[in-house]
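Case study.
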Amino acid sequence: MIKQSSAGIYSWLPLGFKVMKKIEKIVREEQNKIGAQEILMPTIQSSEIWKESGRYDDYGDEMLRIKDRQDREMLYGPTNEELVTDIFRSSIKSYKSLPQLLYHIQWKFRDEVRPRFGIMRCREFYMKDAYSFDLNDDEAVFSYNKFFLSYLKTFKRLELTAIPMAADTGPIGGNLSHEFIILADTGESKIFTDKRIFDLDSEGSIIEKKSLENLRKKYERFYSVTDEKFDKEEFEKEVDKENRLITKGIEVGHIFYFGDKYSKALNAAVDLPDGKKDYVKMGSYGIGVSRLVGAIIEAKYDDKKEIMKWPLSIAPYELAIIPMINKNDTSTLEKASKILKHLENNNIDTIIDDTDENLSSKIKKFNLIGVPNQIIIGKKSEGDTIEFKEIGKDTQNLTIEQIIKILTEQKANN
Amino acid sequence: MIKQSSAGIYSWLPLGFKVMKKIEKIVREEQNKIGAQEILMPTIQSSEIWKESGRYDDYGDEMLRIKDRQDREMLYGPTNEELVTDIFRSSIKSYKSLPQLLYHIQWKFRDEVRPRFGIMRCREFYMKDAYSFDLNDDEAVFSYNKFFLSYLKTFKRLELTAIPMAADTGPIGGNLSHEFIILADTGESKIFTDKRIFDLDSEGSIIEKKSLENLRKKYERFYSVTDEKFDKEEFEKEVDKENRLITKGIEVGHIFYFGDKYSKALNAAVDLPDGKKDYVKMGSYGIGVSRLVGAIIEAKYDDKKEIMKWPLSIAPYELAIIPMINKNDTSTLEKASKILKHLENNNIDTIIDDTDENLSSKIKKFNLIGVPNQIIIGKKSEGDTIEFKEIGKDTQNLTIEQIIKILTEQKANN
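After joint prediction, the assembly is written out as follows.
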């Protein structure tokens, strides 16, 4: 699905690419639903605006610094607060045009000393980052809460239970921040929660100030922090013993509110109704799109059974046809091709494995690739019924029409 | 639509972004139709494979060279022959898996001394590049011809007349190459053609060896070259005086066949039926996606009338509603909102200009933005009819239902 091309840098092969594009599409749709507008900023930035904000020196060695042929200082963007603020200040002049929610989905680069965990922590990575611009704190928190809801919905569609946890604001700075974390033994983040938070969801919340405030409150009723924010005494006071959960997780999203930190430094102000000017209040909101591919594998891979199953919404294909192929007998391959055609006519996205590996190693391979359904055409396949298996469940002998019915229902429920 | 962020590097604002994404979608669909598979290679490459091919030193200053924190030599890919060959050699071992047509759409960087013509010749640009891998010359030319057809179809869907012209193979090397060029007075390429070539199209061609050979022959019957390949004597001998056309154009696509130039250098060989091994034969095929945005503006902008009109297939919106807005009278804005809703219910992608600029400057602005249809709500707008204008045509007073009918027909014909 992917291939390392150099340390911490990967190429996406057809299957991995399809998964990432489907994740990107879901992320995009949920951004659009809260009224965010898509733009696209370049990967290479000038150092000028980073000097204006004061971060050019602060950012350290993770920033990939570049000199072009004319010896100008450039950099490969690790994040885009400066650039988006520059776009904002040159196009928005009045409070009437607020709020502005802008996002883009673009490649970024952080020059990690030790890139680890494959695509989970690479140097070149694909990320959705959004930025909000508001008139005052109250409106800005409303924007923040829109993303809070949007993130809960995004991760739910990816079939992930991602818990928002109070987090440190780190090098981006600010005073309000949540990390969205999914549980995984291999995770890098240590987390401390009241386990009842896992029963919550965003059901019933709408994009309206009060509703979103209530959603935030509902989640904040339960203790849940990363180790940066952990306070043992507080944890033990607030959480009954039977509800305490100390475990590991993977960060898949991060939202920040940082007020006028960048708008002040970069002079991004708007005209107010009374004729004065004020700096806009900003937040930033990230989802690691390429990282999610890895995170979902961590969450959905069953290492005991050696089985991976992608959520249907982002699976590279809905179904894999795996025929047993003998050198001198093309009958199974012909049968497979016939079934493929029939399924495609019914809008079922299908892949066929026409390699001449032996059947059991092909099945094993597809158990790892994680296409959620399999049709196996072996010697046994005679008559009208076909061996069909939803990954992780038992094999059934069904007619092609029965299989189409099952797959169509899977999609309708998705 | 776009904003320069530093020399030769641009940010794409919502309208420009929408146009580019629509172009990208058409390019992608036409690649998929000839059986090309989409992958995604990173922007940052290691220098190692470029040293293997010998191009690391040859490429010159246009290559953006980077050192990471561990002092490793990296570069921002200006093209991907090496990287895709590396992917090929590590995954394809047998002639049975040929042909392979792989493409990706990714940001690239060429450090031009003098970036010019806005997004037409930037340093960071978005490009589709495809690569073909075949067993022998004959099969490789079949692959080449598939892209030849695909490019004609792609540009036709973009409502561009792009003419394939014999071209020099330049730094990528090889012996067979066509540039696809559209006419434009502002173009950088000088071209020499038999003007009858503009009457040709790919109608009736199918993805089959003979059919594609005939298509190539049909085009090659007429003289058409860029200045690199120009030979005055030949031109005047082959083209009658009345058919000679010497003018300027913009290159929007480029296809190359270069045989085993890279496969040999990088040792990309496959097992043959007779047990021997041979280097695969490769071609590469580029379309400048971000450049096309600029090229289409050049082709479609009427500088006498100061009117731009996007082809419907890639227009940022189908229709703009432009109401006259007075401080103390919100009735036109209310009317506009009502119309917007009605149009959206009929799947017409509409933008409304709710700024309080004066009406004539708003109309002028939208004449430049190039949304192909306008509804103007001024003082005159009374009763059931609305002022409707297809850009470049006369204003008509129509009912909303008549307008919907016109717009629906426009789409059906597209």
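Observations recorded in class. The two ends of chain B are 24 Å apart (CA to CA). The mean pLDDT of chain B is 92. We will return to this complex in the next lecture.
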